[in-house]
């Protein structure tokens, strides 16, 4: 028991209050039933599964994009080469058609 006069004279340390929020880890935010090693393992396995699925989707999208890109480039190349070959073929056809007459 401390007398009231003594309480007034004593200076107690005061905790500094900061404006920043205290950093908390994921373990501190979770309830107790989720902090067991087995629960943490299942949580990380679920996260890993989600990551693998997203990577798989990204790879499939990239492959599809590259496939479409090569298709378009092949079409452009064919369209550039076809008119020349068709002109040559038409000239040859005209020459061949003129000979029998």
Outline the structure in words:
Residues 17-36, 72-101 are annotated as: Disordered. Residues 90-101 have a biased composition (Basic and acidic residues). With 101 residues, the chain is mostly helical. 71% of the residues lie in helices and 0% in strands. It contains three helices and no strands. The longest helix has 62 residues, at 37-98. The model has no long low-confidence stretch (mean pLDDT 78).
Record the SSE blueprint.
Blueprint: H1 4-9, H2 26-29, H3 37-98
Biased composition (Basic and acidic residues): 90-101
Region (Disordered): 17-36, 72-101
Summary keywords:
mainly alpha; 3 helices; 101 residues
What's this, in brief?
This protein is an all-alpha fold. Helices cover 71% and strands 0% of the residues. The chain contains three helices and no strands.
Q: What fraction of the residues are assigned to beta strands by DSSP? A: under 5%
Q: What can be said about the biggest beta sheet?
A: none
The average pLDDT value, as a whole number, equals 78
Taken from the alpha-carbon principal axes, the silhouette is elongated
**DSSP helical segment count:** 3
Terminal Cα span: 133 Å
Query: Radius of gyration from the CA trace?
Result: 39 Å
Secondary structure category: mainly alpha
**What's the helical proportion of residues?**
over 70%
Which stretches of 5+ consecutive residues score pLDDT under 50? Answer: none
Number of strand elements: 0
Question: SSE order, as H and E?
Answer: HHH
Region (Disordered): 17-36, 72-101
Biased composition (Basic and acidic residues): 90-101
């Amino acid at each position: 028991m401390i007398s009231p006069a003594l309480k007034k004279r004593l200076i107690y340390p005061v905790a500094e209050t900061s404006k920043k929020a205290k950093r908390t880890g994921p373990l501190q935010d979770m309830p107790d039933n989720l902090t067991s090693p087995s629960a943490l393992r299942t949580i990380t396995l679920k996260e890993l599964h989600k990551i693998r699925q997203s990577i798989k989707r990204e790879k499939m999208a990239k492959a599809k994009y590259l496939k479409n890109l090569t298709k378009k480039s092949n079409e452009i190349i064919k369209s550039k080469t076809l008119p020349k070959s068709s002109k040559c073929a038409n000239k040859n056809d005209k020459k061949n058609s003129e000979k029998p007459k």
